[in-house]
Amino acid sequence: MPLLSAIIFLPALAALVLALLPARDPRTFRNAAAAATGMTFLLSLWLFAQFDVNNPSLQFVERVPWVPAIGFAYLVGVDGLSLPFVVLTALLSFCAVLGSWRVTLRPKEYFVLLLILETGITGVFGAQDLALFFLFWEVELAPMFLLIGIWGGPRREYAAIKFVLYTLAGSAAMLVGILVLYFAGEPRTFAWSELVGRQIAFEVQLVVFVLIFFAFVVKLPGFPFHTWLPDAHVEAPTAVSVLLAGVLLKMGGYGIRRLLLPLVPEAMRFFAPALALLAVVNVLYGALLCLAQSDMKKLVAYSSISHMGYVLLGIAALTTVGLGGAVLQMVSHGFITGLLFLLVGVLYDHAHTRDVGRFGGLVHRTPALAVVTSLAALAALGLPGMSGFVAEYTVFVGSFATFPWHTAVSTVGVLLAAGYMLWMTERIFFGPLNPEWHDLDDAHRYELVPLWGLIGVILLVGLYPPVVTDVIDLGVGALTRWLGG
Amino acid sequence: MLLLAPELILLATALVVIAADLLMRRKRKAELAYVALAGTVLAAFATVPLAGQRAVLFGGALVVDPFAVFLKLVLLATTALIILASVDLVTERTRWQGEFYALLLLATLGMLTLVSATELVTLYIALEVGTMGFAALVAFLKQRNASAEAGLKYLLLAAFSSGVLLYGIALLYGATGSTHLAVISQRIAAPLTMSQPAVLLALTLLVAGFGFKLSAVPFQMWVPDVYEGAPTPVTVFLAVVSKVAGFGVALRLFAGALGQAEGEWTPVIAALAALTMTVGNLGALGQGSMKRLLAYSSIGQAGYLLVGLAAAAKSATVGAGTTGVLYFLVAYAFTNLGAFVAVIVFSNQTGSDRIADYAGLARRSPGLALALGICLLSLVGMPPTAGFVGKFYLFYTAAAEGLVWLVGLAVVNTAISMYYYMRPIKLMYLDPAPSAEPVRTTLPLTAALAGAVAAVFAVALVAGPLIDTARGAAELLTVLR
Q1: Helix (H, G, I), strand (E, B) or coil at B200
Q2: ipTM rounded to 2 decimals
Q3: What is the three-class DSSP state of A78?
Q4: Predicted local distance difference test score (pLDDT) of residue A8
């Protein structure tokens, strides 16, 4: 059975079914969407279980020729690099559907788009053909545009268009980069596994790197191309924020490691110091911006920029440990930010505001939410025992050898994270109860399920990292081999 | 005889339509559309068995080869959909129904002959047959000032450009001593010929003449006005059928016959491509009328096609550039057709062509909005549509021939074009509707729209075999040299 294709296309198939359903009741759509994403998640877990952690080559490979004239094939497979993200996407999509339980505006279109989005993102992580990678990379645009533009906040149109234009500028550059890469050697192919290890002239590598990196740095997002992110996040509905921060941003970091590092390694080495510098700017700039936010959602959005800085730092180090830390950071950040955005969404659904300053003492009304938020904040600031700690620690250990000064400065980001996360939790939940909220409801059971589920995963990875690091190390081992040490 | 069956069927159908028009009662004249449609479909079926043929007719004036057959099928398929899309307008807005379809069929006949022509005089005559039909069709709603004005503009500029083209043909004949493409190709091969100023002048005039027909900048001035003023089904006909045939014959002439002189005209075409896509896309940004938007968009798309034409005669990979253009033409034809048919549906019902009036269409008519949205995304080049594969493959072939700077510019243009293609989508999906009343459509229009949208996906899905077919057609073209 083509398991990987099933995971990629099950949501799209479900979207088609949903689109044809004549029902009007929003519950029908959300139940169907939950069933589809839940099933996809189970399939992805099965894929994870079946994955052979001793085999460093591509597994679950499926190949169907599409345009043979240019060697353009439907070629998918997973290795240690992509498997964690396939599972992460399936998990967060499921959580996103659960987090959309209260969507009543045009539910049919909403869930259809959400499902198409899942197919697009999973496809990016599964594609092993650069043209196919590009195809899936583009698929995500239209659903995101509509999801932000229709179901978003007051400035949704501005945010949606900004998102599309930024991403499109990036992917246009990437297309040229991919074509240059394709024509750089013989035999010409888009197949990733055949492009790896190819000798390409240094100048060509630099060109390819700049073109493709632009797409990824926009997505990551890296300073100074990050300005679309706070807008998109603030306006996007909860579920879209979860997916945006949880997996869409990871496409940038994943892309750097999948396309740039193994395919143009010399250019990667050449640009590594610049990336490290960019990483430090991201970490500190994002964290400092967090300190100045009063909107919870904006705060979490800027914290993503800061946390993506660690990813960039780990990659720039070009060491086994650093690269492994970067992947772990991406996965862990996916869980944690997904959780934080879900929390923001729940609180907003109940209170209809996200202004940190207007809350206060909510613990008296919403003890369950207070507990979960405190745990999430602790995870975000990197408390030992949670996944964030393992990830950031690994990144720092890995990058210290290469960039000691950059690493030292970046650790300040952790301090700042503790500052803004605890400050936010304290101002919302503790202190005297603001009388405005004396009849606020606590989170419902269905809202708590995804929250506690994610906390469970965060603790699992934090306490027993090999759950994911076995797979990650497999991918990283292969990467460093291509780097030549 | 059988080799010309498609042309003969079209001619016979046109005559039948004219005759029937005289005999029929007014009320039943709407059925003429289906006579025309049946003739077109029959002609398409008559074309299919010609697929493997390589026959020369009339002493080398016409050929039936895979290249011609490929284009003929595209022309006939799009014409059939355009006839479906015209039914409502023709029935409601004009008394001369028979004439409309007869002209449409005769113009198509001209285009079919054009893509088969391998002799310059035949080529010119075929082109004029088409052009005359087009001019009359553009002015068909002559009571409307805009239509009449557009007809006159088209006629004048078409006459002027045909004159330029004819002058170029004459010079080419003078320099090479033949009007047969095969002979010209051989004579032009001698390097000495190129030093003759006559040939260079001939090339210049040919490029200019075709520039008008293909709406290349700086010969594009007529496009927005004519596209806007013409009855919309005729606009589609101009934007799709005449473009496909025009690029087909340009490929045969430039990449085929004048392929040896590639060094002389490729830089010019490349420069025109750069100008055309940039001017088209920038011009589209500020448009308030949907038809004008699509007019500028089709100039932009012509620019991408010119990128392919510039790559077509280079020889790094045999026929790759031509293949790229052929596939892109198919993708472009159906995509543009779908977009225009959606516009026809909308304006038939609301009488408006303003982009702003599309606001909230997704609420009023979800199907129509979705179809238009898909076509617009395909025009941008978004997966999984035909436009994506078409653009990807076209840029791919151009890059393979070393035109990387042009591909870079085309990609920048694609990013620009995203902005104006997204604007109607944004309006349709994000903005409130002025009224909740659905935009009603009719069966023929729905069929045309569904056919075009299905083709937009199908062309992408069967890209492999389709490109192989196009490649077979393209390689043959270079054998001609």
Answers
A1: helix
A2: 0.78
A3: strand
A4: 92
